[in-house]
Design goal:
Elements (H helix, E strand, L loop, with lengths): L1 H36 L6 H5 L7 H29 E6 L3 E7 L14 H10 L4 E3 L5 E3 L2 E6 L5 E6 L13 H12 L8 H4 L3 E6 L2 E5 L7 H4 L7 H4 L22 E8 L5 E8 L12 E7 L8 H6 L5 E2 L7 H4 L4 E6 L3 E7 L9 H9 L3 H9 L3 E3 L22 H9 L4 E3 H31 L12 H16 L6 E6 L2 E5 L1 E7 L2 H15 L4 E7 L4 H6 L6 E7 L7 H4 L17 H10 L5 H18 L2 E7 L1 E6 L26 E6 L4
Parallel strand pairs: 2-11, 2-12, 19-20, 19-21
Antiparallel strand pairs: 1-24, 3-4, 5-6, 6-8, 7-8, 9-10, 10-11, 13-23, 14-21, 14-22, 15-22, 16-17, 17-18
């Protein structure tokens, strides 16, 4: 028994010694490894070979823990990024916008006559004042201003550190030169009327004063006009400014500077590229370049819509209602902007037929404005009855307009111009032309007889040719008359072939073309023959607005930020570049418009505008149709477009310096 216990004890002791030696060996191994690596952490090589060391259960635990660690790290970084990471604009990116029309004079003194010029001027030039994206009037090239108690003196301190795009310093002399040039009648600026009889004084190198004869509450808004560099333009004589090549190579103080201009083989400008001005006195633009590409039409293979769909351009300056479905696509945002603009029919009161107020009233009564807005614009426009728009002094939401009534229109017109049926008018035209042909034939026969000295007289009227000629005349008359017109009105009782015939002129775009055709049909219903003439937008100023070569003008008027109606209804504004398209002249209206310009009290101003509107509506120089919507197509790659209300189409670009395509993220920790 003793020997058994002894042997068992020896085995236990032997095993204990063996385990002790094994533990010591492991400890020695670890100590040796630490001495070799001098680190408590695994190497990359060891980490990727850990799979060979761990058992199956150990592998499961290890890799599960590793995955949880990685997920936790990613989650924490995402939380930190969302809370403290801020996306900010980054300089870069090129933007290309398609525009209908082409530039003529990229000069702030004339840009109001061409929407394309306005787009370019608004990006290249800046004025003493500007409108921000919320339509608030704020200083720009001016740092501050002061207005005298009587509202007749405006003193401006100029901003320091402003440079022209050619690196020359902006000075007070540039401001004086600009307004002196506007006031020069040889220059022919449309802004001259706003600065007539205004004295400009240089107080010092940083200060300028405007002195008015009479208080003009809206004067500040006129100072948004861009300033010209004196060192560039002073060498050009006033009568040659419009012809100067510098109008197409502008130098301004705006956020973008002229880079290059491309013309086609015919010399027509196809594209203008602007680049960011790094020394702009406010926040320099983020976009590297902004290019305008010019088109003659919206439709067709070479039109604006096709260019947008084929991604040749990134956006469109304006999308007419009828093209909205075609331009709606991925990566294009359509912005509907509020624009103080109205479309109207202006009667040329210098024409004989339209000189009578009741005749103009009758024509207005014959036109169904509601159907025009419904059929052509799908009710996406606001009907109006007068020139004072919502948001302006004197606006009356309950203002009544001319009621649509064909019967009432005919009653008024019957007082001035009797009717003649289409059949009788047709017969009269045929007979008159046949008679004229016979007379011409006799004259020709007599002439031939005198030349040949013979007694033979050609009696063509007795030949069979007369029947053939008469048939041709009948065909010509049929082609000249519209089957839809049931009767006409004549102007001369002694010659009923002289009918009331009016020329309706408008811009050759699809929307206005449809409206003009509808109006032509309405006037046919009251016996008026209407000839619709469509004029290309590029030629409209030269062919129509300068000449007033129309009886009725279908046109859109942009009122702008200033409620002043002087440019549209004062008799001094009848001739171009005035905007009195009706040739409306009335002494009491002129006096009221002059008085409005000096009125300071808002309540009194509203009353005066209300009286003005009532007088205009009573005289019917125009029929006011609707306020359209303005739709702007912009690529969704553009960030920070933040405009809702504009006074002019070019105002869509009011915060273009803040637009960006590229961005970066920065950490911003709050304490």
């Amino acid at each position: 028994m003793f020997s058994f216990f002894k042997k068992t004890w020896q085995i236990i002791v032997k095993n204990l010694k063996r385990n002790h030696n094994s533990d010591r060996l492991e400890k020695d191994d670890l100590t040796l490894m630490k001495k070799m690596r001098k680190s408590n952490f695994l190497s990359i090589r060891q980490f990727f070979n850990i799979n060979k060391v761990l058992s199956g259960s150990e592998k499961l635990v290890f890799f599960s823990a590793l995955i949880m660690l990685l997920v936790s790290v990613v989650w924490c970084l995402n939380v930190l990024s969302n809370r403290y990471g801020v996306e900010v604009p980054k300089v870069g990116g090129d933007y290309v916008e398609g525009v209908l029309g082409s530039p003529q004079l990229i000069n702030p003194l004339f840009s109001s006559l061409n929407e394309v010029d306005q787009d370019l001027v608004n990006m290249i030039y800046t004025g003493l004042m500007r409108y921000d994206k919320n339509r608030n009037l704020v200083p720009d090239l001016a740092s501050s201003y002061d207005i005298s108690a009587d509202k007749k003196e405006y003193t401006f301190k100029l901003r320091q550190g402003v440079f022209w795009h050619d690196s020359q310093k902006f000075t007070v002399d540039d401001v004086i030169f600009t307004f002196d040039t506007i006031q020069d009648s040889l220059v022919g600026s449309p802004f001259k009327v706003s600065f007539d009889n205004i004295k400009i004084e240089k107080i010092d190198d940083d200060t300028i004063k405007f002195i008015l004869n009479e208080a003009f509450p809206s004067f500040l808004s006129t100072l948004t006009i861009g300033i010209l560099p004196q060192h560039i333009w002073s060498g050009v004589s006033p009568d040659k400014i419009k012809l100067a090549q510098r109008n197409l190579q502008p130098i301004g103080t705006g956020p973008f500077m002229f880079s290059k201009l491309i013309k086609n083989s015919s010399g027509v400008i196809n594209k203008v590229t602007l680049s960011r001005f790094v020394d702009f006195y406010r926040q320099p633009a983020y976009l590297k370049t902004f290019s305008f590409v010019f088109y003659n039409d919206y439709d067709g293979p070479d039109g604006l819509v096709t260019a947008l769909r084929e991604q040749k351009i990134d956006g469109m300056s304006f999308v007419p209602f009828e093209y909205r479905d075609k331009v709606t696509r991925k990566h294009i945002d359509l912005h509907t902007l509020k624009l103080p603009q109205y479309t109207a029919l202006f009667y040329n009161m210098n024409k004989d037929v339209l000189g009578e107020q009741e005749v103009r009233l009758a024509l207005s009564e014959a036109i169904d404005k509601t159907r025009i807005v419904n059929d052509v614009l799908n009710n996406e426009a606001q009907l109006i009855n007068g020139p004072i728009l919502e948001g302006f002094p004197g606006f009356d939401s309950n203002l009544s307009g001319v009621n649509f009534s064909v019967d009432e229109a005919n009653k008024l017109l019957d007082k001035y111009y009797p009717r003649i049926s289409t059949e009788d008018y047709h017969t009269l035209l045929v007979n008159n032309q046949v008679l004229a042909f016979k007379e011409q034939t006799k004259i020709t026969s007599t002439t031939i007889e005198s030349i040949t000295n013979t007694s033979t007289v050609l009696d063509v009227t007795n030949t069979t040719n007369l029947d053939e000629i008469k048939k041709q005349i009948v065909d010509q008359v049929n082609n000249s008359l519209d089957e839809a017109q049931l009767f006409y009105r004549y102007t001369d009782k002694n010659d009923k072939s002289k009918i009331v015939e009016l020329n309706l002129v408008t811009s050759a775009n699809l929307e206005y073309t449809k409206i003009a055709q509808l109006i032509s049909g309405y006037l046919q219903d009251v016996g008026i023959k209407v000839n619709v003439k469509l004029v290309d937008s590029n030629d409209f100023v030269r062919q129509v607005l300068k000449t007033h070569d129309y009886d009725i003008l279908l046109y859109g008027v942009i009122v702008g930020s200033d409620p002043d109606q002087y440019p549209f209804w004062h008799s001094s504004q009848i001739n171009y570049p005035g905007l009195n398209f009706s040739g409306y002249a009335k002494r009491s209206v002129d006096d009221l418009l002059d008085k409005i310009r000096s009125t300071k009290d808002n309540n009194e101003l509203a009353t005066e505008y209300s009286d003005l509107q009532k007088t205009i509506l009573a005289d019917v120089p125009a029929i006011f149709l609707f306020v359209p919507t303005y739709t702007y197509a912009l690529s969704d790659s553009i960030h920070n477009f933040d405009v809702e209300r504009i006074a002019h189409p070019a105002d869509r670009l009011v915060n273009v310096a803040e637009w960006y395509i590229k961005n970066k993220k920065i950490w911003k920790f709050q304490r």
